[in-house]
Design brief:
Length: 133
């Protein structure tokens, strides 16, 4: 299955999801995208550049180090695995893949999405999307 097909399947199952992208944080490049909203395609391009800073920025790294020092986080997994960001009209979900720790799957949902269901469905889609790479 291609990455675009896997992202399309994810969009179909995640409530109010309008776009999905697969980002390589080392290069800042989108390795795959799928959108149902043309405006979301532009947002994905901007997000691809910002994702590395979101997951690997100094503030996040310092917070992760603090958690590790208190043994509150698994030592073998490099950093946060999930970040959800709420904006005025969007819910942005970022999931780091376990198979490729420098890769992140981004989902953009309308703010009307059921947050719990969107997070659950995005987690369920992570395996098939990562397997398509």
């Amino acid at each position: 299955m291609s990455i675009e097909t896997a992202l399309n399947n994810a969009i179909a199952t995640i409530p109010d999801c309008i776009a999905a992208g697969y980002v390589d944080m080392e290069t800042g490049m989108l390795l795959g995208t799928n959108t149902s909203d043309p405006d979301a395609a532009d947002a994905l391009d901007s997000l691809a550049i910002a994702v590395a800073n979101l997951f690997q920025g100094r503030g996040v790294k310092a917070f992760e180090d603090l958690l590790r020092s208190s043994d509150a986080e698994e030592a073998e997994y490099p950093g946060f695995g999930e970040i959800a960001v709420f904006s005025n009209d969007r819910l942005n979900i970022f999931l780091r893949t376990r198979e490729y720790p420098d890769h992140v799957v981004c989902y953009i949902c309308n703010s009307s999405a059921n947050v719990g269901l969107a997070l659950t469905k995005s987690h369920l889609s992570l395996g098939p999307v990562a397997a398509a790479v």
